[in-house]
Amino acid sequence: MYKDSNKKTVDFQSDKYLVFQMSFFATAILINFLLPRLASYYGVPLYLDNVGTLMAAVLGGYLPGIAVGYLNNIINMQGNPGNAYYVVLSTMIAACGTYFGRKGYYKKFGKALITIPVYALIGGGLGSILTYILYGFGMGEGISAPFARRLLESGSMNVFWAQFTSDIVIDIIDKAITVVLAFFIIKSIPEKLKPGLWLTGWRQAPLSDEAIAAVKKSNTRSFSLRGKIIAIISVIMVCVAVFTTIISYILFQNFAMNQYTYSCTCAAKLAGNLIDTKKIDEYINVGKGKSSSDYLAVRNKLDGIRKGNPDIEYLYVYKFLEDGVEVIFDLNTNDVEGQHPGAIIEYEEYIRPYKSVLIAGGEVDPILDDTQYGKLLTVLDPIYDSSGKVVCYAGADIKVEDIRISTLNYMAKVFSLFMGFYIFILALCIWLVDYHLIYPITAMTASARKFAYDSEEAREISVERLQHLEISTGDEIENLYDSLSKTIAETVGYLEDVEAKGEEIAHMQNGLIYVLADMVESRDKNTGDHVRKTAAYVRLIMNKMREKGIYADQLTDEFIEDVANSAPLHDVGKIMVSDTILNKPGRLTDEEFAIMKSHTTAGSKVIASAMSLVSDSGYLKEAKNLATYHHERWDGTGYPSGKAGEEIPLSARIMAVADVFDALVSKRSYKEPFTFEKAMSIITEGAGTQFDPQIAKIFAEAEEEVRAVTAAHESMLGQGIRNFSEEE
């Protein structure tokens, strides 16, 4: 939607404006097609092939601009197939044009001129480097070639810099004229029509520019959906490109190596057929100054073999001996002068592994290795005398550097084509994702986040805001929107009931925990009100620790409630210990104590069984920690696992202090209660050995609150005993 100067609402989503948009973009493509041909017709040394691209990018957005730039190269490749390799440059210029257009650079002429160096760097700088990678730096016959030749003839630059400088200078002029033409064409279009040229695809109530900006800046936990989709598309396209290139490279290299091997083998066999094995000594003696008319004839024929196969770099006939390689024939090349007949040369590293085989007259497979003359493919064909004995070898070498150069050239072409296609597909995917996925989802998310439940009026406004989004993507997103609207509307009516039921369940859960703890406690005549007092101490310690900022990252509200509510279950494992041991008045034997200690692992198993039966076992996790590890010691000498320090769960370290203190101040059949002061001193003395020193210190510092908890529970216990006696 757009309001013109007469305040009439213009619907740019209508079919009328869709035709208008397509006509404009077709005109941009036509401008890109005609201007270069006009420049060529009149002999103007400029490209002028991006004027339409900039128009479409500035007024239409990323997708139209990149599409026009992409089609520009595809259309122009009909006249020159090499234009297809430069499609990446056109799409990059289009992307930059859209960016500058959105930043307002094309609203003022001066700001538009600032963009010229960027386009020149892409078209001239990157274009020149791409040309070098594709074809190597020669002067060529392009638009910049005459200027490059003059720079080269001046003697101030080499071929590389002459061509590079020429491309940059020509492209600065070209892009300056391109920007000026595009600017004035854009200015000539009425302002009221320009919003209609921006290609959109709304499937909901359109968002304002501010809302769109907020969408793009919205924070996500780690990686936005938009970013993930772009990453997925990129990964898929890169993987396809990489695997296609690798497969093509392997096939190309294998084919080339097979062809080279075949050429070497043929050349070596032809050379071997020329050798008269009876005259080998005669050939060798030529190197000692003796004449041989047959030697010269054979050498000329060997030259003919090599010239007949230009790929062959070295052609020779060698005899392999223990002390070295004896030369029979070794042809000169442009770079290397051949060895004289009879010369003994050392074995090169790459041939040493085959020395014994060659001396014995065996056959070796083609060798591909690095030599002092570069990486060579070597074929050694044995030459047999009339008795079938190998007397020497004919060898042929081919340099394989050309394969690498051809491969790099091939990969550069693939990469250039891929990058242009990638930018185009990426722009298309982003456009579709934004309007069909990101904007609708983000709008729903924003409405859901702003939903207010604190009053009936706020709830009505929130529901109305969500329903006014009018998302109509016609797919799962629309179904999600409809379901979300319906669900939220229904949820509003159920909130109070759910909250009430939640509180009731929480109370029931805590009540069941104490019932279970009381069942265990009733078997142990020594414990009294142990589970309730230890739970109270545990909650007191955690609150004091949070006040002091100790273990603040762990002591959340949820953690404190889970530990305090599950604390009564710390001795639940005693249900597995016999009454005889549990209530024995005297000291336990070693065997009995071992059984008593098993209440920790038994408790762990009991709670683990309970955890397997419920879906939300958050509080049971801490109950398991308490039951299992509350007898561990800070110095690692506790049981059942011998954990030490912070290896012991925090909840169990807290329970250790509360459990030991209550045992000290409580009366047992086998001991009288310690005084409060004595019990507190034992806790303090155990800091750093039996207890976490920070927890022990906090407990000691909270002496008054601890006394209050102890006194309160003793009073409650006494009242309970009196009531029981009165009933009897």
Task: Describe the model.
A hairpin with a 5-residue loop joins strand 7 and strand 8 (390-399). The chain folds into 4 domains: 2-200, Orthogonal Bundle (Arp2/3 complex 21 kDa subunit ARPC3), CATH 1.10.1760; 252-399, Beta-Lactamase (2-Layer Sandwich); 407-497, no CATH class; 523-727, Hypothetical protein af1432 (Orthogonal Bundle), CATH 1.10.3210.10. Strands 5-4-3-8-7-6 form a 6-stranded antiparallel β-sheet. It is built from 27 helices and 8 strands. With 728 residues, the protein is α+β, with helices and mostly antiparallel strands. 63% of the residues lie in helices and 6% in strands.
Strand order in the sheet with the most strands: 5-4-3-8-7-6
Uncertain segments: 1-12, 717-728
CATH architecture name of the largest domain? Orthogonal Bundle
Radius of gyration: 44 Å
Provide the CATH topology of the largest domain: Hypothetical protein af1432
CATH class term of the largest domain = Mainly Alpha
* Helix segment tally: 27
Topology:
Layout: E1 2-3, E2 9-10, H1 15-41, H2 51-60, H3 62-76, H4 87-102, H5 109-114, H6 116-135, H7 145-153, H8 159-188, H9 194-197, H10 209-217, H11 225-274, H12 280-285, H13 293-308, E3 314-321, E4 324-330, E5 344-345, H14 355-359, E6 367-371, E7 374-384, E8 390-399, H15 401-449, H16 456-467, H17 476-521, H18 530-548, H19 557-566, H20 579-582, H21 590-597, H22 599-611, H23 618-629, H24 650-665, H25 676-685, H26 693-701, H27 703-727
Antiparallel strand pairs: 1-2, 3-4, 3-8, 4-5, 6-7, 7-8
Helix pairs in contact: 1-2, 1-3, 2-3, 2-4, 2-8, 3-4, 3-15, 4-6, 4-15, 6-8, 6-15, 7-8, 11-13, 11-15, 16-17, 18-19, 18-24, 18-27, 19-23, 22-23, 23-24, 24-25, 25-26
